[in-house]
């Protein structure tokens, strides 16, 4: 496994990829979400699923997709969804409006088809950025790999996952209410 590096060391990849940035999200929740103002707004009942052009992630996705690049992600969701996953379902619509194609699938289906249990980004089918999380869901760092075996495996995961995953808007209609 390559050395663990801070996430900030790879942030440039989100601006400098040529064609695609693809993510697999496997966690039930993320500390970065729970510590943000958007989480508090969501907990207060606010609709957080709107595109916000001044929000850095939305602005970056819009700039890259306007340039013809693709941002895609698949989120694994428990049944019923965890609190963190409900937050991501609610907030994901803003990302979709910014230009990101987000899809979801149930964790049980992911396990059935043999998907990994770790998060990663795949840039241009050449660079894999695998996350390492603490017990509290905080990002401790990432491993960056460009070797053929790791990249090919990530491409296979992307391809099979994309085949089975459902667009966010459709998936939200299927999710059972938790109340």
TrEMBL record:
InterPro entries: DUF6879. It comes from the Bacteria. Residues 8-172 form the DUF6879 domain. It holds the Pfam family DUF6879. This is DUF6879 domain-containing protein. It comes from Streptomyces mordarskii.
């Amino acid at each position: 496994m390559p050395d663990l590096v801070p996430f900030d060391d790879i942030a440039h990849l989100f601006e400098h990829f040529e064609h695609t940035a693809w993510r697999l999200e496997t966690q039930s929740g993320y500390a970065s979400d729970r510590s943000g103002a958007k989480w508090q707004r969501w907990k207060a009942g606010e609709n957080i699923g709107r595109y916000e052009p001044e929000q850095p992630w939305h602005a970056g996705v819009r700039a890259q997709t306007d340039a013809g690049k693709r941002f895609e992600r698949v989120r694994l969701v428990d049944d019923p969804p965890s609190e963190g996953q409900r937050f991501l379902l609610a907030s994901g619509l803003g990302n979709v409006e910014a230009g990101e194609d987000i899809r979801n699938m149930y964790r049980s289906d992911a396990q059935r088809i043999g998907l990994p249990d770790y998060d990663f980004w795949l840039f241009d089918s050449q660079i894999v950025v695998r996350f390492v999380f603490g017990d509290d869901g905080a990002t401790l760092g990432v491993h960056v790999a460009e070797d053929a075996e790791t990249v090919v495996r990530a491409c296979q995961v992307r391809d099979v996952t994309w085949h089975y995953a459902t667009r966010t808007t459709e998936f939200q209609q299927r999710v059972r209410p938790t109340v």
